[in-house]
């Protein structure tokens, strides 16, 4: 099997956060290279060395890095997109200097590799109603499915990942005609666009990455959805008071967040302010080991957990909003 070597550039302080995030997205084996630790080791053992090769230190780029490997196959592109989204979400919850968090994939840019990965991305069905079609692929809709056309570019949201599939399956169950949808951490916009194709009347999508705005709008356009029904914003819903106030309280029938466990925990109170009473909160990006932590946070924010759907090592939690927490 061929493998891709992927390196995340960070800081000494950030290695723990990056490693925890990778574990949250299902990557458990990593290599940490920290130039501070290397220099400290050399300095504390100077009496044992006749000569120090400076090239040794140069092999650890920047401050520190975390390296992992993924199989070079049809799922690699989606795995890398999930990692990029997890890295991006670290900015929501990290209070320390975590560095650039740039990705290097076997010496080439992640965008270059992801463009190569497109050859693996073919139309496929999710749930009972929806087929995901890459905009560069033809699809003959002989089964009269809802066809969601998408170009995810370099952001998370291809439909291939288990968490996205779990969320779409729950949107099929819970989206009603005329519903208003809030998509937190929208990435490519796939979930909010799916909800509109399923009958929702309007959707607001928010992502930390400003580039997600153009990507989500482009994907909406592929599906005949205009800005009269669909709005996309960028910012941090935890720290940006202006952004928080622009999202009306108690307006949304369904809130969906496919992020990572720590961010879901952090935004649970925000979601409780924006959702209608008896509204549905669909959350995923949760590994099994973090399920109880997420459920506890949802309960504290006034939600009642209805279901925890599982696919492989991933969980999608569906909750209904019961009351405002004072």
| Major β-sheet profile | 7 strands, mixed
Order of helices and strands: EHEHHEHEHEEEHEHEHEHEHEHEE
Low-pLDDT residue intervals, each spanning 5 or more residues? 37-45, 47-53
Q: How far from one another are the termini? A: 54 Å
What is the count of β-strands? 14
Q: What form results from the Cα inertia axes?
A: globular
Which percent range fits the helix content?
25-40%
Question: What is this entry, summarized?
Answer:
35% of the residues lie in helices and 27% in strands. The protein has 326 residues and is an alpha/beta fold.
Descriptive overview:
This protein has helices spanning 15-24, 35-43, 54-58, 76-93, 110-117, 162-174, 190-197, 211-222, 241-246, 261-274, 291-300, and strands spanning 3-10, 31-34, 64-71, 103-105, 124-126, 130-134, 146-150, 180-184, 202-207, 230-234, 252-258, 275-287, 303-311, 314-321. Strand 13 and strand 14 (314-321) form a beta hairpin. It has a 7-stranded mixed β-sheet, sandwiched between helices. Strands 2-3-1-4 form a 4-stranded antiparallel β-sheet. The protein has a 3-stranded mixed β-sheet with strand order 5-6-7. It is an alpha/beta fold and 326 residues long. 41% of the residues are buried. It has 11 helices and 14 strands. Helix 1 packs across helix 4 (76-93), helix 6 packs parallel to helix 7 and helix 10 packs parallel to helix 11 (291-300). The protein is globular and about 55 Å long.
């Amino acid at each position: 099997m061929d493998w891709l070597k992927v390196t995340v550039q960070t800081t000494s302080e950030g290695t723990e956060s990056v490693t925890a995030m990778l574990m949250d997205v299902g990557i458990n084996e990593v290599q940490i290279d920290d130039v501070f630790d290397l220099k400290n080791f050399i300095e504390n053992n100077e009496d044992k060395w006749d000569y120090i090769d400076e090239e040794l230190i140069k092999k650890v780029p920047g401050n520190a890095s975390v390296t992992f490997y993924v199989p070079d196959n049809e799922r690699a592109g989606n795995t890398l997109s999930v990692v990029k989204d997890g890295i991006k979400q670290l900015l929501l919850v990290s209070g320390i200097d975590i560095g650039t968090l740039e990705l290097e994939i076997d010496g080439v840019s992640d965008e270059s590799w992801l463009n190569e990965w497109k050859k693996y991305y073919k139309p496929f069905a999710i749930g009972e109603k929806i087929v995901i079609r890459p905009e560069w692929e033809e699809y003959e809709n002989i089964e009269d499915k809802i066809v969601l056309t998408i170009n995810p570019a370099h952001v998370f949201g291809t439909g291939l990942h288990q968490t996205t599939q779990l969320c779409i399956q729950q949107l099929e169950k819970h989206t009603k005609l005329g519903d208003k949808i809030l998509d937190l951490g929208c990435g490519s916009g796939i979930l909010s666009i799916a909800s509109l194709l399923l009958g929702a009347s309007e959707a607001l999508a928010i992502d930390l990455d400003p580039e997600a705005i153009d990507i989500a709008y482009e994907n909406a356009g592929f599906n005949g959805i205009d800005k009269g029904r669909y709005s996309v914003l960028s910012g941090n819903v935890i720290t940006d008071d202006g952004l928080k106030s622009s999202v009306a309280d108690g307006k949304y029938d369904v809130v969906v967040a496919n992020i990572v466990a720590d961010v879901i925990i952090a935004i649970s109170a925000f979601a409780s302010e924006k959702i209608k009473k008896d509204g549905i909160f669909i959350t995923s990006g949760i590994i099994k080991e973090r399920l109880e932590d997420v459920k506890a946070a949802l309960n504290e924010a006034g939600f009642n957990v209805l279901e925890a759907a599982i696919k492989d090592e991933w969980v999608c939690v569906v909750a209904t909003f019961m009351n405002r927490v004072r």
